Write a sequence for this structure.
């Protein structure tokens, strides 16, 4: 049994490699038709077709889906069209919006006026915060550190998706405890199962951090000699996984554990935070 459990990660890695090859093949096929990939994962593809009308988009999607189905490697795959936008602004899975095809009169003038004032607004904001306009501090950064659990399967409908622990909108209360919901049937996921997966991720990440290699900052080669202080190119050695990355993951998991009342995960995180890095 221990041997089987040990090799489960190998099998999972092999399956993920096959999935990635499948996604890459789909990307190549879509990009060959002069479309631009906006976002892609194992469950969906969001693309910019470059078409000017919805009817042209629907025709393009039907042709692309049919051509993919004709490929032998995609015979067992279910592909379907879900939604289209005339205009869409995309940042990530949790931050995007589309614009209706028919807008109220005068909206074009409003948008143009706002766009024209962007430079002035940016300068005024930077001046009020005593920050240089072109400083790194003036650039926008995502204020929410999060983590994605891959391939969470709903026990009710068997729907599989990647779960964003901090940004997912499908939330509800069950016995006073916040739980995530399936995006398809809205049945609650098992919090204990997700907690065990998070502990597993945390343990493997910490183990990778402890046993990691060092690389040279100049040539990016991995350190070979254990006693060498500098690389042969006179560069310093730095870890592949930084302490800041581990600290961010621990703080994120601690916040999730506190909000969703995952006591075992919280104890594991607090114990890891006490360990000197």
């Amino acid at each position: 049994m221990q041997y089987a459990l040990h090799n489960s990660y190998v099998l999972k890695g092999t399956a993920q490699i096959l999935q990635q090859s499948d996604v890459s093949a789909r990307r190549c096929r879509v990009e060959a038709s002069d479309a631009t990939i906006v976002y892609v994962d194992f469950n969906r593809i969001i693309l910019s077709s470059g078409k000017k009308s919805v009817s042209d988009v629907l025709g393009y999607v039907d042709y692309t889906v049919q051509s993919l189905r004709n490929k032998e490697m995609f015979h067992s795959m279910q592909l379907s069209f879900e939604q289209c936008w005339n205009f869409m602004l995309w940042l990530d899975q949790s931050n995007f919006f589309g614009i209706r095809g028919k807008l109220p009169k005068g909206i074009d003038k409003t948008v143009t006026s706002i766009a024209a004032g962007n430079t002035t607004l940016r300068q005024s904001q930077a001046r009020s915060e005593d920050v240089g306009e072109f400083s790194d501090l003036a650039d926008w950064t995502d204020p929410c550190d999060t983590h994605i659990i891959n391939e969470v399967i709903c026990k009710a409908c068997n729907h599989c998706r990647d779960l964003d622990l901090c940004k997912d909108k499908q939330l509800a209360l069950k016995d006073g405890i916040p739980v995530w919901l399936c995006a398809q049937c809205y049945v609650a996921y098992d919090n204990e199962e997700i907690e065990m997966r998070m502990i597993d991720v945390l343990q493997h990440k910490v183990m990778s951090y402890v046993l990691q290699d060092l690389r040279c900052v100049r040539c990016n080669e991995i350190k070979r000699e254990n006693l060498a202080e500098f690389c042969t190119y006179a560069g310093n050695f730095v870890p592949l996984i930084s302490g800041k990355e581990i600290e961010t993951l621990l703080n994120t998991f601690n916040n999730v554990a506190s909000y969703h009342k995952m006591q075992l995960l919280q104890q594991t995180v607090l114990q890891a935070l006490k360990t000197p890095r």
